[in-house]
Amino acid sequence: GINAEYGGFGGQKNSKLVQMLFFSFFKSLVGKEVIVELKNDLEIAGILLSVDQYLNIKLQDIRVIDEEKYPHLKSVKNCFIRGSVVRYVQIPAAEVNTELLQDSARIEAEEQKKI
Length: 115
Hints:
6 strands; elongated
């Protein structure tokens, strides 16, 4: 899969634009399996049910990647994840439009030169 990392983009000015790009992209992944890695190192795999403009995520049919470390989460089937606690979202490689990604990266690099 591919990792989509939250944050790491230059300036407050661009952060809203980048957030909207992530929001639009993640909306296109609804119904697909993703793995969400949280800032506390917990990794949860599940079907992306929804995402909002704050990049909060709802997953269904979840499973914890390291079940031995988190046995209390074994019985959980659905979850809501606050966007601010997400470190990475791993997505199926087949879902990535590399041309679009390269164009976005090029535009971001050009914007950074202007700052």
